[in-house]
Amino acid sequence: MSFLLLNSWKEEKDEAVKRRDFEALNEHLATKFTFPEITHDVKKELADFIASEFDQASSSYKCAQIRTVRFLSRDKSGVEVLFTEDLIELIIESAHLEKSSTEESYEVISETAKCLVNALYNSDKVRKVFEVKSVDLLLERISFLLNKIQNNTTLEKDEKFKYFSKISSEELQDLFFLDLRIAFIVTAHSLNVQKNWLNDVDNASVFLNTLLLSAKNLNNLTQKEKEWGNEALKILFNLFCHAKLFDLDFAQKCADECARIIKTSTVDPDFKQNCVNLLAVMPATLESLCPKIEGQPKSTKVYEDYDVEFADATLALFDERIDNLDKKDIELLGTFFTSLIYLCKNHKAARRYCRLKVIPPLHAKHVELPPDEGKEFRNKIIRIMRSDANCRELAAEFLFILCKRSVPRLIKYTGFGHAAGILANSGLLGAINEKKRDSDSEASDTEDYKEVEDLINPVTGYIEPHRENPLANMTEEQKEYEAMKLANAMSKLMEEGVFTPGTIGEDGRVRAVSHVNELVKNVNVKEELESDSDID
């Protein structure tokens, strides 16, 4: 695309010729997401040309023009140049999200709504204009369409939406989805919209009602219902994610619906994932999802007189997601950890049930391999702990909560090497030698585990294959010589800044040492030898 083509359009009087040129251009642009060959000046000139032609154009020509803008708005480079004030105004008006004197066809409304999805995602300029002029009308239209889809025909009289009378039911449903997409992007970028929509429960209820409509028949969801439900959940997530204060009754209604979806086995995992994401940003609602059972239990999952079906379903979904997510998507697991951590911190029965599922009593077979190897739930979470994912600390915190913040118990299930990070961050390295609590062995030691417990390397967390001690055949002089070589090598590496050894400070946290001798200054050989005894 070039100035030459634009100039030829300006001189061309036949709309059909220009429309065909735009359609040919769109075929070329459709599969691309960046357009380095199109200069900023050309984009600006194109925007001016479309703005000058649009009002007099036919619907098909308008669609071709807007489609070109939609494709070009995929590329952040030069997107602010493309969206001139006139073009932004034109697109918003054509989408009927600002008062317009022209009634556009469904095809134009739909195409401009699609264009707005890209424009709002990539252009700060478009977002600012849209927030001032269109967010209220967008919410009003979503509410209108929701009622329309629910067959509430009394709203036909609304003058603002009279153009819907010419649109089919299927087209209304498609436009409803596009409006939800726009609402998701707007709420993702604007704290003001998040706050204003959430603070008015009537506004926020539009999206809960969308979710309720979508999930009405969970055992037989249509593709459109899944799409509406997912968008509604993502919008609600945006509304709650930065909220300090909100209506707890409304939040609880959202949480109850999320729990119902998570507990339904036939629902798509991605749909459930969005439910977990929402629950993670309104944790105060979680405790009530595992209620005390009064009378005859309706749930199939009862533990200590509590209905733990929600906890069980969340863990099952979590386990499934760990297995099926690509490494690049592992951060999606963070909301599972956040939700489960809060639930287990505040609900004793839920914590005990989760512990039973995630870190059940150990058997001898469980310590034959390293803790991060295997197919057990515990193994999978420890693998996340040792990954470079941002949620690795949440994984460690979750296991620590299940262990009732007992350092010996955490080391027992993970090995000290895997637990060192959370212990260091929590200032608990000094507690690694604390005595076991009476409850640390409660229902967690089996007879066959006790038989092999003394063979487990506490650092690695499993029974390592027998290896010959490299010092076994050395004289004391040779051992001393090797020790000095090691100390000198470490000292040299420290001086060169290759690494910095640490020791445990008085606060239980790691601090850097200034000299290698600090690593051994408090070691008492006699005490060390005595501590190796099997006597507790």
Automatic annotation (TrEMBL):
The keyword Transmembrane does not apply. Pfam families: Ric8. One of its GO terms (biological process) is G protein-coupled receptor signaling pathway. The keyword Chaperone applies. It is found in: Cytoplasm, Cell cortex. Keywords: Chaperone, Cytoplasm, Guanine-nucleotide releasing factor. GO terms for cellular component: cell cortex. Signal peptide: none annotated. InterPro entries: ARM-type_fold, Chaperone_Ric-8_A/B, Gua_nucleotide_exch_fac_Ric8. One of its GO terms (molecular function) is G-protein alpha-subunit binding. It comes from the Eukaryota. Belongs to the synembryn family. This is Synembryn-A. It comes from Acrobeloides nanus.
